[in-house]
Amino acid sequence: MQHKPELSNSNLDFHDLPPFPEDVPKAPLLRINLSKLTEGDEDEIDKLWKACCELGFFYLDLRGIGKRSDSATEHDEDDAQVKVESAAEPEVRVNGDQLLRDADELFGVGKKVFELPFDEKVKYDLKDQGSYFGYKGYGQGVIDAEGTKDRNEFYNVSKDDILGLSESLPAPEVLSPHRDLLKSFIQHSHTVVTMLLGLLNTRLSLPQDKLPSLHKLDSVSGDQVRWVHAPPQPMDDRRTALGQHTDFGSVTILFNRLGGLQVLPPKSEEWCYVKPLRGHAVINLGDAMVKFTAGILRSNTHRVVNPPGEQAEHTRMSLVYFARPADEVLLKVLDGSRLIDEKRQQDPNHGDDEEITSKEWILRRALGRREGGDWAKAGGTETGCT
Fold it and tell me: What's the structural domain count of the chain?
């Protein structure tokens, strides 16, 4: 079955922003419906599998999961929401509408963070403490081996900090009133991740719950929320804001309103824009999924440039949830799947170049892209994505 990208729907536009131009190359992301996935729709699960194997990026329509009517029965609510068990918060269910509401509020919180004076924000740059949490200033990262500086700032919030799984990290006071909101966003994002991993686990015929068990909400890990803030670039000096890369972990959930994200489709030399869609998140897989599956699942190269067209004059902000394997999980090919075994037989050396934990992998890659870091150690699985 051939699935085509579905983009022609004016209801998906952000009408309070300049329009996304139609004359730029657009990435062929499939649109996948969260509601259909929770209902076990096989055609929708086929689309998910195709997207994860071929491009590693897709849109996830979050609308309509979690709405409650006054006449709904308890049975109806159970049908509308899929419960995801977790030792930390067993009552949290897949709820796309709540996730969208949380994301909307967090865009406002992020704006307040970046409005703080630089001297205040830089207090929370924890790079010198060997941490990728906290603040990274504009131009404090590099986008290539020559040391070209990036053109964005971001702030990372640790899942473990918010859920009380680790000691609290220093943070701006402006974040203090919003810890419950961050907790809700993390929990609802993670339930989506758990559901997606469960569906992929089944398609891979791995032992039951193998992939979800490596990504438990209450496991100590590098999971984080990130705000990214990129002001308009000078008209006569516009270039890449965030260099080409693959993501460090397993599943990324991205919310943005302006263009700028680009992917390099397989066997293509043309960078294509990912058009933001209202009511949707952009989901992509990271390096861990490539390593676990001997390359069956794809972590695709992407980058961020100045927004296209009229959007170029506006500040671009993104909100991201990065889900990563628990710190002590070894990034190696998983046993117990015939599909993975067959793939590994085609390339016996895949994934056997080193033995490294999730925590070591993420630290090496994240800090390698900071100014003064070791660029040679900042690469991911992109060289295997052709």
Answer: 1
